Structures are given as structure tokens and as C-alpha cells.
Amino acid sequence: MGEQPKLNVVVVGGGTAGWMTAAALAKLLPTRCTVTLVESEAIGIVGVGEATLPHIRGFNERLGINEAEFMAATRATFKLGIEFEGWSRLGDSYIHPFGTFGSGQGDLPFHQYWSRLREQGAAISPLGDYSMAVTMAHMNRFARPDPDPARIESTFNYAYQFDATLFAPFLRTIGEKLGASRIDGRIVDVDLDGESGDVAALRLEDGRRIEGDLFIDCSGFVSLVLGKALGEPFEDWSHWLPCDRAVAMPCRTETPLTPYTSAIAMPSGWRWRIPLQHRTGNGYVYSSSFTDDDVAQSALVGAVEGEGIAEPRVLKFTAGRRTRSWVRNCVAVGLASGFLEPLESTSIYLIQAAISGLVELFPENEISPLDRDEFNRLIDMEYDRIRDFLILHYHATERSDSPFWDYVRTMTVPDTLEEKIELFRRRGRVVKYREGVFLDASWVAVYMGQRIIPEGHDIRGDLPPLDALARSAEALRGEIRAKASRMPDHRSHVEAYCPMAVAA
Prior knowledge:
Elements: E1 7-12, H1 15-28, E2 33-39, E3 50-51, H2 55-62, H3 67-73, E4 77-79, E5 81-85, E6 93-97, H4 110-119, H5 132-139, E7 159-162, H6 164-177, E8 181-184, E9 187-192, E10 199-204, E11 209-211, E12 214-217, H7 224-229, E13 234-236, E14 245-248, E15 261-266, E16 269-275, E17 280-286, H8 293-303, E18 313-316, E19 320-322, E20 326-327, E21 330-332, E22 338-339, H9 347-360, H10 369-395, H11 403-410, H12 415-427, H13 440-449, H14 466-485, H15 490-497
Helix pairs in contact: 1-6, 1-9, 5-14, 9-10
């Protein structure tokens, strides 16, 4: 059997999605494809400061990226989870941690035992006190997880908070070293094959024509190839996720360097706070049906912790996704495929999911409709399950103090989410999936944090004697606090491990 010819892959657009894709394909499929990325220096990227999920660590490791170098280059900090302020009631606060509740060693998930103790009147602390990640976050401490699964220090995970405008250039250097080539030029048209309807080439402003076998659309909200040229429809989810704008503004950091991202409820949406080494990223995600740009901008400027270091800028978007992400010989990755607001830091994860699916289902000599359908099934599933998780945050509120919160509290939600909520409310059961990003602890954190408290518990939780269970829970809480208190301060750890390079 002769060697298969390499496919000519053209990545349309740079930024995080484009350079993650180009670098990954060049690294993981060097014998199967050549990679050419086309971007224009004149077109900016959306990046306003990225908070991520722990999956990015695996992506970086596959590309051979040194963690400390990556963090120094992108001025990154560590992230143990996301803090939600004021989502269920004004004054409420909880953390969605990266890790388990409890020791992860019991026959049942820890929240089942916690529910029994609560139901039967035993002294019990808030659920977050039994999470290593939550306790570390509250203390502003950080250390790496212990590799020994028997130790409580192994029960958490971490991600990063970094400057998105620095991530793409960092990846570009890696991608080009791996063999990806780059063309600078503005795309003005997309040529389709008259017979097959496939994408034949990109046309650039200067007259050049870039041909390819497989086109990866990383052109952002514009969706230049999948949306515009191929006309793939967009499914609008704004009736469930009504926020359609964000105003963003970085500021100087004047508080402790927190190892978590904050999502703070606002009258018409929510505000993000992402602490980086050199600044804090801030933004107000809001619905233009419930407030206007000037009011939102004023609210953000009034809420940030320190002096602003750039003018506020407004981004517009619509929650939803393309009906299919792979059509003919075009695969959309990132915003060209769909958009879900950054409430749970899923944007880079969705880029990763698309890249992983593409690598696993990469065409042999020609594109198989079966492979294309499987890719679309996987991506649809990721979007749909994250959509339900995001809707949960809004719908599970007791707030009626503004028209926005009244709307999301009373709106009709997808049947898939309604069933999940009712199952948890009855006896603390979390719907399990073999595939998808958010595991049991994530759902438990949001359900409990937003006052969806189980009315009952798994009957297996009745086996231990109540007093022994209470003593065990208290001992666990004490051990977690003791171990966290001995860890380094987060800022100290960052400054020792990955201090950012000082500009010359």
C-alpha cells in the first residue's frame, strides 16, 4: 500500500481558535496534512481575558507546552473554580470547584451523606467546607494536586486564567515551529466548486487565491465559510440565554490575587472578574432587552475594584450554534460554530472538543459522511449540555428584584433540564453521561449553591450510624482546612513558579 497523500488544510482566521487548531493538527497529524493559516493583521481578536477549564492542561501537554513558560508568557494565574455571587438571592455566594466534595473515597457521592445529616438535624457545615478546592480558594492558597488518590490533596484540579491577547501569539510560535505556515491577508470571498458545492478556495484582497482540501473556519462570529459561504443556519437560543452583549474593561489589581474567577450577579446579567498577574479582567454580560449600553457601561465602571487601564468596549453576540458544525469540506471551530456566554469558561473547551473530534475523525482520502455526522453529533451534544448547565444558573434563582431576574426565573426551560432538576430535587441524583464536560460535582455545586436542595437522599446513605457519620464529616472538614492552611499563598506560588516577563 502506498503512502497516503497529505490533505491540504487551510485554517481560516487566527486568534485562539485558529492557532490552537493549526498547532494541534501540525503536532498530532504531521504525516496526514499540511497546515496553512490565513489571517489579517488588520482584524482584531475578541480576546478580553480568558478563564479556562482543567481540560486545557491536557491540550497543552499534548502539544509539549511547558506550563511555567506558558503561564509566564500569558501572564497567567491558577484557577480552582468559579465563585458565584448573588445568583440565588442577594448576598448568597458559592464556588463551583474543580474537584470533588468529600474525599472521593465513599460508596456514595459525599453530597448524599451531607443531605442525610442535614435532613436529620445533625450539625453540618456548608457543602463547600468539604471541598479541598473551595477551601483553598477561600484562603487564597495554591499547590499542585497530590498524585496519591488516597490523600485529600488529590481531590482537586485546576485550570488557568490568562491574557487571551497573548495566548494566540504564543501558540503561533509553537505552530510555526511544528510546521504550520501562515499567510497574512484579508479574505474577501470564498469560491465554491460549481459541481460539488465544496469550498474550493479563499480569495484575498490582493488577488491571491488559496486552495485547499479541508477548510477549518475559525473566523469568529462572522462565520465566513460555514455561515456566509455555505449558508448553514444558526439556532438562536436567546429565549433561554437572553444576554446578548458584554462591556469589557481591565483594571489594576488592588486586592489579593484570587485563584478563582468570579461571576457576580448584576441587575440585567452578571459581571466577570478574572485576576491575571498584571491586571484584572472585568466585564458585564447583559441583555439589551433589559438595559442599554450606557447604563451597563456605567455599572461596570462603578463596580470594578481599581483604576481602569483601557476604555470600556462593547461586544455583541447571540447565544446558539450552527445546525451543523461540519458541512461539506468545512469544519467550524470556536465562535464560527456557535457561542455560549463565558459564565462557565467553556469557550476554549469547545474549541478543544472540536479539535479532538476532528483529529479522531480526520478524513482519509476523502470525507466520509459517517465521520462528518459523528463529528456533528459530538459537537451538538457538547453545546446542548453546556446550554442546559448555563440555563440552570439563571433559572434556579429566587430573585424577582429586577425584570431580568424575574424573566429567567419564570421562563420555560428545555425538557432535558427540567428532568435533571426534578431528579436532583427528589433525592439528590445527578443525571450521568458518558460524554460531556461537566461531571457530577459541577452540577451538585450549582444545584446546592442556588438552593435546589434535595428533599431526600439515596437510601444507602442511611447505613452508617448518624453520630459516626457526623464525626467523620467534621474530621474531614478539619483535615481539609489544616492541609489548605499549610499551602503557599497563591500570589507567592505564582511569583516563584511563573513570573511574567517584564517588558523592556
